[in-house]
Every structure is written in C-alpha cells, then in structure tokens.
Design goal:
The structure holds two protein chains of two kinds.
Chain A lengths: L1 H20 L7 E7 H4 L5 H12 L2 E7 L4 H9 L7 E6 L3 H6 L3 E2 L20 E13 L10 H5 L7 E4 L5 H14 L3 H8 L3 E5 L2 H9 L6 E5 L2 H9 L4 E4 L5 E11 L5 H11 L2 H10 L3 E2 L20 E2 L3 H19 L1
Parallel strand pairs in A: 1-2, 1-3, 6-7, 6-8, 10-12
Antiparallel strand pairs in A: 3-10, 4-10, 5-8, 5-9, 5-10, 5-11
Helix pairs in contact in A: 8-13
Chain B lengths: L1 H11 L3 H26 L5 H5 L1 H34 L6 H10 L5 H12 L4 H7 L11 H25 L3 H9 L4 H29 L3 H6 L8 H10 L4 H24 L24 H26 L4 H5 L2 H38 L3 H9 L9 H12 L9 H39 L3 H30 L2 H6 L7 H10 L3 H27 L11
Helix pairs in contact in B: 2-13, 2-16, 2-18, 4-8, 4-10, 4-14, 6-14, 6-23, 8-10, 10-13, 12-13, 13-18, 14-23, 16-17, 16-19, 16-20, 16-22, 16-23, 18-19, 19-20, 20-23, 22-23
The chains are: A alpha/beta, B mainly alpha.
C-alpha cells in the first residue's frame, strides 16, 4: 500500500511537473496580455497576429485575461516572474496607476502620427484606439432613449440597464468617472437613483454586451459610441444605436505598454510601433470597433460617419483617478449596490 | 520476559515518526503562509478595515446570511424530518434519503448551475410564473445565496434530525398511543426532545459552513451586492491587488473562524459524513393521522432537491455539447482536474493515516487521551484557516520566488489536501482505533510488528475505509473552486474553474455540458478510487461516521 501510494504520488507529481513545463516557450515568442474581446475570432487579435508575425519572424501569443482592468492586477499578482512582455487594453484612466507599479518601461515608439481628441505626452504608453463611453440601446425595445445622463438617472425604474464593475472593467470604471465628472460630490446620490435600474453588474464588457444585451435581457447597456458602427457595417442593421447625452461623453483611450521584466524588449518595442502602423490601425474600426488613433483616411468605414458626435469629451486627470479611485470605488460599492 | 518487552518496544518505538512528519508538513503548509500574513500586517493599518463602511457591511452580511441560512435550513428540516420519521414506508423513501446525502459530494458549482437552470432568470420557475404575470424572481443576491445554502444544508440537517427521531425507543411511542396523545403533543413530548439535543450542534455546523461559504456567494452574489469576507478577500486580491485589504480581511476571517470553532466545540453534533442508505426501519410508529400533511411536506422537499438535478441533466445535452466536449479547454481542464483529485487524495489520506498512527499510540497505549486528540485536531486546521485565507498567505509567501499562476495546480493540491483532511480523519479514526483496541494484545503476543503488522492486520481492516476516504477526498478536490479561483487562469484550468467562467459569461449551453462533465468526473473518481484503494467496486456504502 505504501509503495502503491508512493508510486501514485510520483506519477501524479511527474504529471503535474510536466504540465508546468509546457508553459515555457522559445525566446522569440512575444506574449501579450489583453482582454477577451480583443482575442476572439471576430476581434482584431487574429488579424494583428498574422500581420505582425509576417514581419517579425516570431510568434505572437495573445493571452486573454478575464477583464480589461484585470490585466494590470494580473501582472501585479504575477510580479517579477510574469510571462507577459506587453500589456494591451489598459486605458488612459489607469495610466498613472499602472506607471506607479514600476513594472513598465518606455515604449520608444514614434508617436508623431497619433491624432487623438487630446494631446499625447506619455512615453510609456502607446495609444492604439479611442472612443467615448455611451449607452447603446435596442431601438425595438426602447424607441425613446434618455437624452442625457441626468434623464437616465431620473428615469422610471422599469428602464433596465446593464453596466460593468469598475474594479474589473475599463467601461465600468469609465461610467464611474463619467458620473463623477457630471455630478461631482453628488455622484453617490445619483448612483442611488440609478441603482434600481441596474439589472446586473457584470465583470467584463463581453458578457454584458453579447451574452445579455444582444440576447434581449435589457434594452440598454454601457458600451461605446462606436458600437453601432459594427452593427451597421457588418450586420447591416440600425437596430442598435448609441444614446447621445447632453452632458457630453467620457473619453476612453486604449493603450498598450511594454514590461520592464520582458526579455524581448526590442521585439516588444517593434510590436508597439506596429500597433500604430497604418496596417494595424486600419483593422481596428471594424474588429475592435473603436476609432483609430492615427488618420487612416478612406480606410475608416463610411458607417462611422453616422455615429453620434459627443458635444464634449469628458476626461479626468489620470493622477486624480489614481489618487481617488479607491475612495470612489468604495463610494460606488456603497451607493450603487 | 525481557525478550518480550524488547520485542514490544521495538514494535512501538517508531510510533511518533509518522505523526511527527505529518505535523511538520502541516506546520509548514499553514505556518509559513500565516507568518507571511502577519509580517505583511506591519505595513498596513488593521483598524482601517473596521472603519471602512464597505468592509463593515461585508462582515455584517457574512453573519447575516449565515444566520438566515442556518435558521431556514434547520427550520425547514424539522417538519421534514418529522414527516419522514412518521412515514417509515413509502416507495422511494430510501432513494430520497440517499439523495439527501449526495449534497456532500456534489460539486457546489454544479449544483449552482442546476439551481440557475430551475430558478434563474430564464429558468423553469420564472417561465412558469410568467404565465400568471408574476414578476420574475431574481436568483442573484441574498435570495439566491439563501436558496443555494438551504439546498445544500437542509438535507444535512434533515438527516441528523431524522437519525435522532429514528432512535426514539418504541416504548415511548407505545406509551404515547396509550395516553392518546394528539399529533402536537407527540411532537412536543416525544419528537421535539429527541431533536433538541442535536439542534444547536447542527445549527452551529451549518452556520459555520455558510459563514465561510465561497463558491455560492461568488457566483450568486450578483457582483458586490452580497459579499462575504471569504469572497471579499478574493476580490481584494484579484480585482484590486489590494494587499492590505486582503491581509486585514484574512486575519479578521481567521479570528471569526477560531471563535466559531471554539463555540461549536461546546455543542456536540453527530452530523453524518458520508452517504448511506438507511435500512428501512422496522420500528413501531403510531398511526399518522395527518398523512396528507406529511406527504405534502415530503413531496415539496423532494421537488426542491430533485429539480435542479433534472435541470442539469436535461440541459447538459444541447446543440453545443459536442463542440464543448472536444474543446481543448475542456480536455485540458479534465486532465488537470484528475491530476488534482488523485494527488490530493493520496496526500490527504497519507497525512490522515500518519496522524492517526501516532495519535492512537498516545491515546490508547500511553493513555494520554486528550493529547492524542489534539494531535488529531491539528488536521482540522483548515477550519480555522479557510481556503482563501490560506491561499492569500501562500501568495504572499511565494510572490517573490515564483509566479503563482504557473504553480496554480500545485497550490490547489496543497489547499485541497488540507480541505479533505478533516473528512479523512473522521472516516479513518474509528476503524484504526478499533483495530488497535481489539488486536493490540494479540499482535504483541505473536510478536508481529512494523510492516508485517500493517500488512497482516491494519491494512485488511482499514482498507475499505481508506478506499472510501480516497474516493471522497478525490471527489471533493475535483469539485472545488475555492482553491483554484485564486490562482487559476487560462494556464491552469480545472473543470470547476471553466464552469465558473462559462456561467460568469452567461454561456449557459456551454456551462451545462461542462457541469455534466464535472459531475461525471467526480463520480468516476469516487468509484475508481474506492475500487483501486478500497478493493471494492459498487457495493453499498456503510462507512458512515
């Protein structure tokens, strides 16, 4: 019996060790941590992978982390021994926080072509696309959407919305900051009024948008002003539209960065530069469904001209977000849940 | 004479070795992470936890939902146990009670899926009530947590209470018939006193189980709306990388668990551990005048327990079944689940045997009963240091040396081994002690010692319980989410983790099939381990506590 146990143990342990051993690859593999929708088959992942691998003589390995804000936590949890070379999918709001971890190195990228609603001055983060947060509604279920954030907050409670968790998802964080930009110190009260309308809080954007909203679980979901562009261009339908809000819309700029611990610094840098190349940028509007961060001219789908034009781009200072995020999340936990 | 003494001495002089080894291993696995936890507190402000309103609410909610769950589970178990005890013979009674005992081995996350299929937003219940224009019942939040806790714990409480009721001597019932006691008086003077002795114990047990509940609260908690300390620790670490919150909450949780354990040590309970088919009793029972009441209760309870299983089985086969079965993630997760289960079962049972070999020597041969028991209690350390707390400690300990995500399977095995150990100890304690008490003198007079003693005497006697312990710990490890949730990722998938992700992203077809695969895996592991280690295949199980 003892030998039996010992044998079983050694077989088991060998199997465990073999499983671990599989995770090490050759030197020329670039590992990119990103969020789920980026790597899905209809997302930009496959196109970017093929295009970059053609020019780099390397393997580009996308790893999908449960949610966008989770990418940063994941790298922190893994610490110095992380396998990631590049993180892709943080946003402007998380930049100061990410920079403070000391895990990121300078991108060395030439950002002269970058064209965004704001001036770009970070030499660590490479902005690869942008858009505004917006509530997307199903015109069949909701012909008359609210015309402002305040109208939504004060709408009757039978209007149901789906939002994301600010602790795990960058859209969730974006809505929290949007509310903060509009209501300031009264944000907690506004959340309390919004609370009965929140059908559910998901941890990531994908489950809110695909699994719930598109299956008709709620007439409105927190997403982007660009989302209808995909439905119009690919699905050929105008059923899903973004509601334009009078107060303006909060801006999201998605960024990528290189990790200091990466053993593939040069390869990582060339990938970051590739991200803002004409080739990669032209793929983004209909795969990641965001505005490109450089001028791609006619490559921008015509449907994007039919999108709402936010009256104002709202954006809080990234250092302020870093300092206040915890307090604001606590406030959100208190008042919206 | 001195020759015999020398022989006895040589037979017994290594009694301390296995127990000491097991204790050292236990001390290392729990002591080092605990040290890491405490060392980290020097950098943080513990009182901050109690000032933070959100944390206060989490702590309050942990107690509140545990209290409600325990009250509901025990409260509903009283009439059910009474009905089952008054109706000793009806078709399917045996199987119903057997089903009640399954709640211990069914992976929590699988049962949750069944519950969602029945009571979820698009589940049977809401489809049914929608016909009558009734607003849909929401399973997310407190109501869902209570529902799932009652699903798991009401059967447990019922079995404990039913046991007490079945032990009521016939004479009492005959007396009650002679005195022409009515139904209520029978309850008041005969059944209630019998149940009362078990009530506090089983209430405390369920309260403690629900207080540290992780999987149910994580999946049905509906975001941060309803969160227990155990889940808040997980969120602090995985959502926020907020070490100070994670550590403070972990220490708070340990303090509460210690308190609860000390409290329940005062109240004895005889909660049955495994599953057994109680033989149809031939006891005397007075004529039940309100049979329709008893049967209504029994039918409602049966529906409550059976429906989620039906929901699971019916939805497991759907258009995406084949795609899910051959998906690389499913295959990888199944392999990992089997590795974790088998290795955990081996480690856990080996530690259990080692502890018991030494503790039986101290308890029986040296007659230091209390000391022996305390050594054995060391195996219950996981009750004081719940999985997520232990996981947090392990993370703090290892983060400078290793990427915890790469060694996730190893960490899950460690934590799961400790989680299974209390069950292993309870299953093996009786048989090992009996073997000693009954045969020690004979063995010594025959001069059999060491390995021969083990092979000739101990092994044949305890092989069957060992098989049962291996089967149970393998099934528990295969279905556990709490250990893998903290460190699992796309690199270390297990079936429970995959199921959790698929439920979390509302891919219910894929989730249904995954749940079916996990359930099968647990069953196969249980039967296989019993067959290999216990030397028996499909015999009814009586290795109850």
């Amino acid at each position: 019996m003892i030998t039996g146990i010992r044998r079983a143990l050694s077989i088991g342990l060998t199997a465990v060790l073999l499983t671990f051993a599989q995770s090490s690859h050759g030197a020329q593999t670039l590992t990119v941590y990103t969020y789920e929708s980026f790597t899905s088959e209809w997302g930009p992942g496959p196109i970017i992978k093929t295009a970059f691998e053609k020019q780099c003589d390397c393997t580009l390995d996308f790893v999908a982390i449960d949610s966008s804000a989770g990418i940063l936590n994941r790298v922190q949890l893994e610490g110095k021994s992380t396998k990631a070379d590049v993180v892709l999918g943080l946003d402007y709001n998380l930049m100061a926080l990410a920079e403070d971890t000391g895990l990121l190195s300078e991108s060395g990228a030439d950002l002269s072509a970058v064209k965004l609603p704001i001036d770009w001055d970070s030499n660590i983060f490479v902005p690869y696309d942008y858009g505004h947060f917006a509530f997307v509604y199903d015109t069949k279920l909701l012909p008359e959407p609210p015309k402002s954030l305040d109208e939504l907050v004060n709408a009757p409670d039978d209007l149901k919305i789906i939002i994301q968790d600010p602790r795990t998802s960058t859209p969730g964080l974006g809505l929290m900051l949007w509310m903060k930009s509009v209501y300031g110190d009264d944000a907690a009260d506004a959340w309390k009024k919004l609370k009965p309308k929140i059908l559910t809080v998901t941890s990531g954007w994908s489950e809110a948008y695909f699994s719930l909203f598109l299956n008709g679980e709620a007439p409105m979901v927190l997403s982007y002003d660009t989302s209808p562009g995909y439905h119009m261009a690919i699905d050929k339908t105008e059923q899903y539209q973004a509601a334009a809000f009078d107060e303006g819309h909060y801006l999201q700029i998605e960024v990528a960065a290189l990790l200091k611990s990466s053993k593939n610094q040069e390869l990582g840098k060339s990938f970051l530069q590739f991200l803002i190349s004409n080739e990669a940028q032209s793929a983004l509007p209909l795969t990641n469904v965001m505005y490109p961060s450089i001028d791609i001219g006619d490559a921008l789908p015509a449907e994007f001209s039919k999108l709402i034009k936010p009256t104002q781009s709202l954006l809080l200072d990234t250092e302020l977000v870093r300092d206040q995020r915890k307090a604001w999340v606590d406030e959100w936990l208190e008042s919206a849940n | 004479m001195s020759g015999l003494k020398a022989q006895i001495n040589s037979a017994l002089n290594h009694w301390w070795l296995p127990g000491l080894l097991a204790l050292v291993v236990l001390a290392l696995i729990t002591g080092l992470p605990l040290t890491a936890l405490i060392l980290t507190t020097s950098e943080i402000n513990l009182s901050g936890v109690f000032q933070n309103t959100y944390f206060n609410r989490v702590i309050f909610f942990s107690f509140y939902q545990a209290l409600l769950s325990a009250v509901l589970s025990v409260g509903l178990a009283i009439p059910l146990a009474q009905a089952l005890s008054r109706e000793q013979v009806f078709p399917g009674r045996k199987w119903l009670i057997y089903l009640f005992s399954l709640s211990l081995v069914i992976p929590t996350i699988v049962a949750i899926f069944g519950i969602v299929a029945v009571y979820g937003r698009t589940g049977w219940l809401n489809n049914f009530t929608a016909w009558f224009g009734i607003d849909p019942f929401s399973i997310y939040g407190l109501s869902g947590i209570l529902l799932a806790h009652v699903f798991f714990n009401m059967p447990l409480a019922t079995r404990v209470l039913l046991q007490s009721l079945d032990n009521i001597p016939d004479t009492q019932w005959r007396l009650s018939t002679q005195l022409r006691l009515n139904g209520f008086s029978q309850f008041r003077f005969i059944e209630w006193p019998a149940m009362r002795t078990q009530l506090v114990g089983v209430f405390m047990l369920i309260f403690t189980l629900c207080f540290t509940s992780f999987t149910i609260v994580l999946t049905l908690g509906g975001g941060p709306r309803a969160t227990t300390i155990e889940v808040a620790i997980y969120q602090a670490l995985r959502f926020d990388f907020d070490l100070s919150s994670a550590v403070s909450l972990a220490l708070v949780q340990m303090a509460f668990c210690t308190l609860l354990l000390l409290l329940s040590a005062f109240f004895k309970h005889n909660a049955p551990l495994g599953f057994s088919i109680t033989p149809a009793a031939t006891v005397f029972r007075p004529v039940n005048k309100k049979r329709w009441v008893s049967f209504s209760i029994i039918i409602l309870a049966a529906l409550f327990v059976v429906l989620p299983f039906m929901g699971l089985l019916i939805s497991a086969v759907n258009p995406s079944t084949v795609a899910v079965l051959i998906h690389t993630n499913t295959i990888q997760a199944t392999i990992n689940t089997f590795i974790i289960a088998v290795v955990t079962a081996c480690i856990s049972v080996a530690m259990g045997i080692a502890l018991l070999i030494s503790s039986r020597h101290i308890r029986i041969r040296l007659a230091y009963h209390k000391l022996g028991q305390w050594i054995q209690h060391a195996g219950n350390i996981i009750l004081v240091m719940p999985p997520v707390v232990l996981g947090t400690g392990l993370f703090l300990l290892l983060r400078d040396f290793a990427d915890v995500f790469s060694i996730a399977l190893l960490l899950a095995i460690l934590i799961n081994s400790l989680m299974a150990l209390p069950f292993v100890l309870r299953i093996l304690d009786g048989p090992i002690i009996q073997a000693t008490e009954h045969h020690d003198k004979l063995i010594q007079s025959l001069g059999i010692s060491g390995w021969s003693r083990w092979r000739l005497l101990d092994w044949p006697l305890i092989r069957q319980p060992i098989g049962y312990a291996m089967g149970l710990s393998a099934a528990l490890a295969a279905g556990d989410l709490s250990a893998i949730a903290l460190f699992g990722s796309e690199r270390a998938l297990t079936l429970p983790l995959l199921l959790f992700q698929r439920i979390g992203s509302y891919r219910l077809h894929e989730a249904a099939t995954t749940a079916g695969v996990l359930l099968m895996a647990c069953l196969v592991l249980f039967v296989l381990m019993r067959a290999i280690a216990g030397g028996q295949l499909l015999r009814p199980i009586h290795a109850d506590s």
